[in-house]
Amino acid sequence: MAARVFQKESVITGHHVYKTVWTPVIGEELHTEVEDDNEHDKYAVAVMKSNGIVGHMPRSLSRISWYFLKNGGKIQGKVTGKRRKGNGLEVPCIYYYEGSPRTICKLRRLLS
Q1: HEC string of 28-79?
Q2: What is the extent of the structural domain holding 101?
Q3: Number of domains composing the chain
Q4: Which UniProt keywords apply (predicted)?
Q5: Rounded to the nearest 10 degrees, what angle do helices 101-111 and 59-70 cross at?
Q6: What pLDDT digit, counting tens, does each position of 6-60 carry?
């Protein structure tokens, strides 16, 4: 069965922690990984560049996204704007969730 994609506008959180190792560029593509050893959030999802973590998905998305990744889904991110103040420094982005049609349908319901 062909994979489906669902997109969600959001932010990359924690840029204030990673600003010395990453300068976001509009259009830049990133990937995500479950961060099992995060002591602050057991459902943390790290936003990654090839050289390491550059931020995290916001908690409002991380728990559902954590389960999605643990069950074989894939999430990519794309920077859509300049950093701004929110809960710390945030970078606007779109997350692209890729998975089976059934999983994407369920994800769409949970995130709407």
Answers
A1: CEEEEEECCCCCCCCCCEEEEECCEEEEECCHHHHHHHHHHHHCCCEEEEEE
A2: 4-111
A3: 1
A4: Hydrolase, Metal-binding
A5: 160
A6: 999 999 999 888 888 899 999 999 999 999 999 999 999 999 998 799 999 999 9
